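Researcher: Let's do a round of design. I'm pasting the structure tokens now; please hold your answer until I've finished.
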């Protein structure tokens, strides 16, 4: 199905009401037989449809689709500078921006309803059911190379946590270096990728994935405890949180972060990260492909390096292919 037809079809069905095959066919300019084929393709995307003889087809409970107009409206500050692309389906929002980094303006954002090859840290797949979570990437240009990016992934985590808190969500914590947690379970992840001159002008793509409203059956391939915004909102007595509103809040925070980061650096953000640090002053282990290091988590320094108290003294860990886990 062409993406414009997919968007048109979903825009009608998103209200959760029944729509007849003839109505949908008229909208798309195709036969009822073609409508049926298009609806089958929606099922292939994991979108559950209900059909009823004499009434037509519906998406039970409706579906909130991403809207550029709503995101811009909710973003407020800097919205006029936003270059936004919203796609029904993409392999990976990070991959899409990385492949076009030289041609796109700084501040360009790609948001997708679904990713077919979403990626997390350490090459892991990011589970991406259609229109249930947030998957977006933001391109930004830096003139000072990798030196200007020190600790940035941690500050991005602060931006996500503060966006969630601004919508009433309590209990968000940050796991060094790239995860956002709630109740000790993964709520969001961050993937930073860079191209260009490591010592000069470079392009940075910040990928963000946030679990918003994901059914258990859609998350069978996730290999760690997870949680979503919808379940947190219900548990905390909050109204459902809009994906468009959440996206706008995170983007607004990121814009302010990136605009000033070369001058301020991570030192400006350190205390805000420490206030939400997961496992602070607890026994943890750092796991790499070749070894495990045990110690007590002391937090991070002004560069974003992890501070770990071990039997042989304090160690600083700057990143790489490493996983932080609490001692059971």
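Researcher: That's everything. Go ahead.
Model: Designed sequence:
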């Amino acid at each position: 199905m062409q993406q414009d037809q997919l968007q048109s079809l979903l825009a009608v069905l998103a209200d959760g009401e029944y729509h007849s095959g003839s109505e949908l066919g008229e909208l798309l300019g195709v036969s009822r037989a073609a409508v049926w084929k298009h609806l089958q393709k929606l099922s292939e995307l994991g979108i559950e449809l209900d059909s009823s003889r004499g009434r037509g087809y519906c998406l039970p409970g409706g579906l909130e689709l991403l809207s550029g107009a709503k995101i811009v409206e909710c973003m407020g500050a800097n919205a006029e500078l936003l270059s936004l692309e919203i796609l029904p389906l993409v392999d990976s929002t990070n991959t899409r921006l990385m492949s076009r980094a030289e041609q796109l303006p700084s501040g360009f954002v790609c948001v997708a309803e679904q990713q077919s090859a979403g990626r997390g840290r350490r090459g892991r797949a990011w589970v991406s059911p259609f229109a249930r979570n947030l998957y977006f990437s933001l391109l930004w240009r830096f003139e000072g190379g990798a030196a200007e990016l020190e600790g940035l992934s941690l500050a991005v985590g602060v931006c996500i946590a503060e966006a969630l808190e601004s919508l009433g969500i309590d209990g968000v914590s940050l796991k060094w270096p790239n995860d956002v947690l709630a109740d000790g379970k993964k709520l969001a992840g961050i993937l930073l990728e860079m191209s260009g001159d490591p010592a000069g002008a470079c392009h940075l793509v910040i990928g963000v994935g946030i679990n918003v409203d994901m059914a258990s059956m859609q998350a069978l391939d996730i290999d760690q405890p997870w949680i979503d915004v919808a379940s947190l909102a219900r548990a905390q007595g909050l109204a459902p949180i809009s994906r468009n509103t959440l996206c706008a809040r995170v983007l607004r925070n990121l814009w302010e972060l990136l605009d000033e980061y070369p001058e301020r650096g991570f030192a400006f953000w350190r205390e805000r990260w420490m206030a939400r640090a997961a496992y602070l002053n607890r026994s943890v282990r750092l796991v790499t492909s070749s070894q495990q290091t045990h110690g007590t988590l002391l937090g991070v320094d002004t560069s974003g390096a992890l501070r770990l108290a071990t039997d042989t003294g304090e160690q600083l860990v700057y990143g790489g292919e490493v996983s932080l886990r609490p001692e059971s």
